[in-house]
């Protein structure tokens, strides 16, 4: 991967699949003429979990805006009625539209197709194994009125599924989370490219659980680039954030399901580490803060990424030692502890500032 190109340039990724048609299989667009928000669910052969995702999008409490729910299916049917199609045709909700691509355009292509097919001013992404909170639309409609020229809201979510893959919160984190739940309602925390430059990681999170994008801005940005897999969401949002304001609600918007899928494939996990190492190197060369963090915490930045990947892939054949070639690693326990504490304190302060001013 040419990480310098990733940082400095955004291509038009929508033109890559202009010749692939997305056919409307179920639903009537005339029933909802001008949706304000489109909840977009890209899917591929996951009809059982997909039903839960759809239900969470359709069964919204007190939605205070017009909205549509679009399913964009990447499974080629070859004239056969698929399990996903059978599921969708069991719905009679006028808000639901089901599209199927005439060819498989990959994950990035399908995410981009969601932008293209959405008719809402805002596009909320929901992966087909995740869920929205039941008052998602009510919450985000109020949040969008709080700030001017919002480009995106990335989602705060609760992890469900195989929780044994996730580390337990510290006592400080448990206390602060309770405070954020109590005082963080209808509050927004500003996310900036500087945050990524300092911590050399995807501080935006995955584009799901109601991550909301202003459609026109996303189209101008060029969409997700399949060549940046598996970090395509990180690099897209990093570039997007250079031009447009990104905020993160302190309040929970959805539920993120941790299951064995492509993201937990050992090959994919290895690629995550390589992407972070590449970004760290370019960050060092391109930005003063990146140079300073590299100088003092090069090994610690690498160690945190390794810990994260090893925790995700704890049941795979991954070995921490195999990543040592990406950084002449030195174990420095005191600096590593300092780095981790600084990371936690940094985000606690940002959240407190959001509770006061957000």
Automatic annotation (TrEMBL):
Residue intervals of the Glycosyltransferase 2-like domain: 38-212
Look up the signal peptide feature and give its range. Answer: none
Superkingdom of origin organism: Bacteria
What GO annotations for molecular function exist for this entry? transferase activity
Source species of the chain: Robertmurraya kyonggiensis
Keywords for the protein's UniProt record, in alphabetical order: Transferase
- Which Pfam families does the protein's record reference? Glycos_transf_2
The UniProt record lists the keyword Transferase? yes
Q: What is this protein called?
A: Glycosyltransferase
């Amino acid at each position: 991967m040419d990480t310098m190109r990733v940082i400095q340039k955004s291509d038009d990724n929508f033109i890559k699949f202009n010749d692939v048609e997305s056919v409307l299989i179920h639903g009537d667009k005339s029933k909802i003429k001008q949706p304000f928000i489109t909840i977009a669910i890209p899917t591929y052969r996951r009809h059982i979990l997909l039903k839960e995702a759809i239900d969470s999008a359709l069964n919204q409490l007190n939605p205070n805006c017009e909205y549509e729910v679009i399913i964009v299916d990447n499974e080629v049917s070859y004239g056969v009625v698929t399990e996903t199609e059978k599921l969708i045709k069991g719905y009679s909700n006028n808000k639901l539209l089901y599209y199927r691509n005439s060819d498989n355009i990959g994950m990035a292509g399908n995410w981009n197709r969601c932008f293209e097919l959405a008719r809402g001013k805002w596009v909320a992404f929901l992966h087909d194994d995740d869920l929205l909170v039941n008052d998602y639309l009510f919450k985000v409609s109020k949040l969008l009125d709080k700030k001017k020229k919002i480009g995106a809201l990335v989602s705060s979510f609760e992890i469900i599924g195989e929780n044994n893959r996730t580390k337990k919160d510290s006592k400080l984190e448990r206390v602060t989370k309770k405070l954020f739940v109590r005082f963080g309602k209808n509050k927004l925390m500003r996310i900036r490219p500087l945050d990524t430059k300092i911590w050399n990681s995807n501080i935006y999170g995955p584009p799901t659980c109601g991550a909301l994008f202003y459609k026109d801005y996303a189209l101008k940005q060029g969409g997700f680039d399949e060549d940046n897999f598996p970090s395509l969401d990180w690099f897209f949002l990093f570039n997007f954030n250079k031009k447009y304001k990104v905020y993160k609600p302190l309040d929970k918007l959805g539920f993120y399901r941790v299951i064995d899928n492509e993201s937990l494939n050992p090959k994919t996990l290895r690629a995550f580490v390589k992407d972070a190492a590449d970004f760290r190197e370019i960050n060092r060369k391109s930005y003063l803060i990146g140079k300073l963090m590299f100088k003092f915490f090069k090994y610690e930045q690498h160690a945190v990424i390794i810990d994260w990947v090893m925790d995700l892939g704890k049941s795979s054949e991954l070995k921490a030692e195999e990543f040592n070639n990406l950084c002449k690693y030195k174990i420095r326990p005191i600096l590593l502890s300092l780095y981790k504490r600084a990371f936690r304190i940094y985000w606690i302060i940002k959240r407190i500032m959001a509770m006061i001013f957000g």
